[in-house]
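Dear colleagues,

As part of the handover before I leave the project, I'm documenting each prediction I ran so the next person doesn't have to rerun anything. This entry is a single chain, and its sequence is reproduced below.
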Amino acid sequence: MTIGTITNHRSREEGAIIYPVHSRRSGGLSIGVNLFPDRKVCSFNCPYCEVFPFEADVFFSMETMKSALCRTVQEAQKNGVPIKDICFSGNGEPTMSPFFTEAVTAAAAIRSELAPEAKLVAITNGTGLLNQAVFQFLKTASLPGIDLHIWLKLDAATEAWYNAVDRSAVPFMELVSRIRDFAGSGAPFTIQTMLCKIKSALPPPEESAAWVQLVTELAALSAASVRDCCAVGHTGATGGYCVTENKPHIRAVQLYGKARPAPEDPLAEAAPTEALEERAALLRGALDKAGMIVPVEVYK
């Protein structure tokens, strides 16, 4: 079994549907599930994205995914390599695939049977939340049963930085509004933010301040949804927290830097470690002031 490094996940661009990699944020072996083995499909056009232009004569198939996932899990276990998670990411935005819900459900069953200690993760830029069916599936899948860990991208909190770092045709305010709805829905999730330089410049102070304010607001919305669940006796059913802890459904905030080469380099560059730590400190201070208990993690 060849495991991709932190700086190289390129096997996805060679037609791989299942690709084992060493992941910073997972802290070890992550088994990737790629729903787009033939080409990149994404609703964002991030200048830091490491997926190089490619075309492959391989098409996604559920049977191939299931057999390859089982084989990769068993090979890792045979070699004594702990599996941290099974992760939907790949060459684009996984929620855009017509196979997304079926594939997540199938992977959840395989995880439960072969690797119950591993998490099931979906990394998403959040644009799928604009589709009510995807919104509802993610909400339901995040709860006990499938227990999908949703890593929801929030690179920007102002339209100007969104246009620079994500470059999406999806309207910024429409996307943020839907993320607010999701935070208030009772679904647990993780916020992930790429912090990098664009055209040699870090995000301006007004972007940093807006981001801290937005994340704190999302934590408050999430905490309110927990209180609502507790108030009607649904804590155990939803995996929520006790109302007295003021602890939201946001599992963590992941701040990470650019670690892999991208086709548009040097348009996007890695941010200094100090910039990530400074942003994390600002958020921790704001969350603490608001009484929100959310881990803030930095991945350099």
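The radius of gyration is 19 Å. Residues 196 and 272 are 8 Å apart (CA to CA).

All the best with the project,
I.
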